[in-house]
Amino acid sequence: MKAQNVNKGYLDLVARSSPKTNEARSLLHSFWVGGVICVIGQFIRFMLQYVFGMYGDELAGTTSVVLIFIGALLTGLGVYDRIGKYAGGGSIVPITGFANSVVSPAMEFKSEGYIYGLAAKMFVIAGPIIVFGVTTSAVVGIVYYVIGLFV
Predict the structure, then answer these.
(1) Is residue 18 part of a domain?
(2) What digits encode the pLDDT tens for the residues 21-43?
């Protein structure tokens, strides 16, 4: 009984001291910033297609590399963090958010050296996502292969 009172008191303290958020404004910021990032990606794709004549896998790969570079560069300059504070989840558009999740820890631990700091900590955030994605895709591939044997 006493633990419930402590938990309730703690939750009341957290509710009183937490800053109030405007959910509608946060959703609007997230929506429009995520949309702008996607529009920039689409613009890059159009430019690569119509100016440089790229098509297919070459176009998709180059567009991804350019977006990753821009996300990493903006993270290195400290701009992406400000975008993230303003837009919240809207800044975690998959490809630029991935670049940010790789570069941020690398920059944070750079002072520990290139091997034990930068290289070892670079994938602290993105590493589990990569491992899960690769493992899941391998399992799905095996399942499709086995299903193909019986069909």
Answers:
(1) no
(2) 788 888 999 999 999 999 999 99
